[in-house]
Amino acid sequence: MRSAFLLGVAAMALSACAGGSVPDSGAGVGFDDYQTYAERQVPAQPDGTVTVRAPSPVETRSLDGNDLEAEAAASAAAQNSGIAPVQASPQNAAPEVVTGADGISNENNFDAVSAQRDIEDDAALIAQNRAQYQVIAPTDLPPRPNSSAPNIVAYALQTTNPKGVPLYDRSGRYDGNPVPRACGAYNSSDLAQEAFLSMGGPQRDRRGLDPDGDGFACAWDPAPFRAARGG
């Protein structure tokens, strides 16, 4: 009973398919459309025969080792400077071949070394080089030279205010110029800062080297020393 029911359902499905139409996509297999497919077909003759186009001829030839090497060299010359195995632009000049260069070591060339000495001589040379090794033990850093000048590096690391931020009263002597005329007596801002600290700075400014009162003479900046410390 169940088999008869299934056969009936299958028959109904087949009849539905037969009564309907298959949608046409307009495209053939492997072609953009049917017209393109039809144009590519070989027409039949009146007697019903079909002429098949002959395939394109294929060139065959055998290559020996010399031919392969020549083709590889020609390909390399077309792609680079022609000096194998350098893969460079054709615009690059070919590298200069150095011959008879005195002073260039050939210790990494086994053929060149073997022509100069045998294994025993090479071992003796290695032993001689090892005997000349000198192990230098590390030592303490030399002491700083004795100087009575203030340490401006230590001062820079002890301070925290940026340049231009006043901390000390200069009794209104600041006229807006960060480098006063008195700074011309020093060859660098470091020397001016040392002199400023040695004369009572930063609290006192006897020569007017720090008119804005930030504690830094002649536009001296502690920032590079702080940055070297990491902050």
Summarize the structure.
This protein is mostly helical and 231 residues long. The protein has 8 helices and no strands. The protein has helices at 2-19, 34-39, 65-79, 110-116, 119-131, 152-158, 189-198, 223-229.
Give structural notes.
The chain has helices at 2-19, 34-39, 65-79, 110-116, 119-131, 152-158, 189-198, 223-229. It is built from eight helices and no strands. It is mostly helical. The model has no long low-confidence stretch (mean pLDDT 74).
- Helices, by number, come to 8
Instruction: Please tell me how large the radius of gyration is.
Output: 47 Å
Q: What level of helicity do the residues show?
A: 25-40%
Report how far apart the termini are.
94 Å
Q: List unreliable stretches of 5+ residues.
A: none
Instruction: Write the H/E string, N to C.
Output: HHHHHHHH
- How many individual β-strands? 0
Tell me about the largest β-sheet: none
Category from helices, strands and their pairing: mainly alpha
